[in-house]
Design brief:
There is one protein chain. This protein is α/β, with parallel strands linked by helices and 409 residues long. The protein has helices spanning 23-38, 54-57, 62-65, 86-99, 119-136, 141-146, 151-166, 170-184, 199-203, 232-238, 265-268, 274-286, 292-295, 306-315, 324-330, 353-369; strands at residues 4-11, 47-51, 77-79, 105-113, 207-209, 212-213, 222-231, 243-252, 298-300, 383-390, 395-402. Helix 4 (86-99) crosses helix 16 (353-369) and helix 8 (170-184) crosses helix 14. Helix content is 39%, strand content 17%.
């Protein structure tokens, strides 16, 4: 395994409807920014790893009609789609392409232009196809029928379970939204920017389904992210401060019958997310991290709903289960806190679905490289963890980044 470094990051502007550009043009905003940041051109690439959610936009095989606009002429292209984790899986694929020696320099590209399609309808097609066999296996009908409400139908079921298990209150959900939307106001690429937002204002937004209010839910964003990965040797020639991807790991729980905990945890209780714990533990081990609570300086969990920031903070082994709400109350998750969480504003502020999990890795890289601008955290970031969640609510992907390569031996 070769050391792999991020040397360039590019993000497009994210809004609800980018009517000024088509999909290739939107993606080019992120891609061209990444090329500029790394100081390279498409001629320097050995390949492209890309991904989005094609069914959500109604146009399939985007790598065939789009990649030529992004520098893929006469270059190998691989498309990856794994649900909400797509961007994270794209980042993992790019990492392995370089780490394995297959390629020296690659660009990871992930995007979504949700205004060109219907994401909820796309999610519901998955629910309808999956519901009948799951019900026949005796999986909780209430949870499976929740899929009919799209992502929020699953999220309210998950949020209620998390609140019961942790003691989290609706006020904590309000505070999560304030944390993220305030951070997003300092991020020029973010979608929802709400400086000065208060928990009381969030608590007055419309109740969608208990316990989630409109203010606890992510937007539907148009946007793109690109990231240049290369070898440690080439990185030294391109930048003084690369962000090394020390490790990646993923874990998919069985979608229906058993699950890794012999209980079908992904479906019987979507709050459990045992797969996130497994992926996080594997990623930390491979990255040479023994005490993540002490060694991780920054976390970018994939949290399109407010409760998930707290839930995945715990599942990423950054505290004991049930402790995250009190850690939020302590101020530790703020930009100037002991372990800042989602300084970018997170998925709850910006959700171009196919890109969101890659953006977690990209934002962690920016923080390590000191390029995050106004949302740069106050402490030096030496090690960071980035996370993605998706599939059939059963897949977790984790990446650990650092300012130094993985220790050997």
């Amino acid at each position: 395994m070769r050391d792999v470094a991020v040397v360039g990051v590019g993000l497009s502007k994210h809004v609800s409807k980018r009517r000024d550009v088509n999909i290739p043009e939107l993606v080019w905003e992120g891609v061209s920014a990444a090329y500029e940041d790394a100081g390279i051109t498409p001629r320097d690439l050995d390949g492209i790893i890309t991904g989005n959610m094609p069914a959500f936009e109604g146009v399939n095989l985007p790598e065939l009609w789009g990649a030529g606009h992004w520098g893929a002429y006469n270059k190998p292209v691989l498309r990856i789609t794994t649900g909400g984790t797509t961007g994270g899986s794209v980042g993992h694929g790019a990492f392995y392409a370089v780490a394995s020696g297959l390629m020296d320099t690659v660009i990871a590209i992930a995007f979504e232009k949700q205004s060109d399609g219907d994401s909820t309808a796309g999610l519901n097609t998955v629910a309808v196809a999956d519901m009948a066999p799951f019900l026949s296996y005796g999986i909780d009908p209430a949870f499976m029928l929740a899929f009919g409400g799209g992502a929020v139908g699953v999220a309210v079921y998950q949020a209620s379970s998390y609140m019961k298990r942790s003691g989290c209150t609706p006020h904590h959900l309000d505070k999560v939204s304030v944390l993220c939307r305030t951070n997003a106001a300092k991020n020029p690429a973010a979608h929802l920017k709400q400086p000065g937002l208060t928990p009381e204002e969030v608590a007055r937004t419309a109740l969608m389904q208990y316990p989630l209010r409109f203010g606890h839910v992510c937007p539907a964003s148009d946007g793109a992210c690109a990231m240049i990965l290369t070898t440690a040797e080439k990185a030294k020639k391109l930048t003084d401060k690369p962000a090394f991807i020390r490790s990646v790991a993923s874990c998919s729980e069985e979608g229906a019958l058993v699950g890794i905990a012999a209980a079908g945890t992904a479906n019987t209780d979507p709050c459990a997310q045992e797969g996130c714990k497994v992926a996080a533990a594997n990623a930390y081990r491979k990255a040479g991290i023994k005490e993540p609570r002490q060694e991780i300086d920054l976390a970018e969990p994939y949290a399109p709903f407010a409760h998930q920031l707290l839930m995945f903070y715990e599942r990423l082994l950054l505290c004991d289960e049930g402790e995250a709400p009190s850690i939020l109350d302590s101020g530790s998750m703020e930009l100037d806190g002991a372990l800042p969480v989602c300084p970018s504003g997170g998925v709850i502020s910006t959700n171009a679905i196919g890109a969101s999990a890659l953006e977690r890795i990209a934002e962690a890289a920016l923080q390590i490289m000191g390029k995050a601008g106004e949302h740069q955290v106050e402490k030096d970031v030496h090690k960071a963890v980035a996370h993605g969640w998706g599939g059939a609510v059963n897949l977790n992907v984790v990446a650990v980044l650092a300012d130094t390569p993985t220790p050997r031996g």
